[in-house]
Design goal:
single chain, three-stranded antiparallel sheet, mainly beta, 71 residues
Length: 71
C-alpha cells in the first residue's frame, strides 16, 4: 500500500499465497515423572510473502527444547 511506504521501504502490494508449515515434536521419558521434550518447526513462505520488502528470508525455523515434570 502506498500509505505504508517509508524511506528505504517501497510500497508493496502482495497477493494470495500458500505457505508451507512443517514440524516435529518428540517426548522422551527420563523417569516416570520427568520427560525431555523437543519441537522442530519451520515455514517456507510463498512468493508473495518472500518478495515483500519486510521479509528477509524465504524460510523460518525454530527449535524449542525443555524438561517437564508431572506432579
Amino acid at each position: 500500500r502506498d500509505a505504508e511506504a517509508a524511506p528505504g521501504r517501497p510500497a508493496y502490494s502482495g497477493s494470495d499465497v500458500w505457505n508451507l508449515v512443517y514440524g516435529a515434536r518428540m517426548v522422551a521419558p527420563i523417569t516416570p515423572r520427568v520427560s525431555f521434550q523437543g519441537v522442530l518447526a519451520g515455514t517456507r513462505y510463498g512468493d508473495s510473502v518472500a518478495d515483500s520488502p519486510l521479509t528477509e528470508d524465504r524460510h523460518r525455523a525454530i527449535a524449542i527444547f525443555g524438561v517437564s515434570y508431572r506432579f
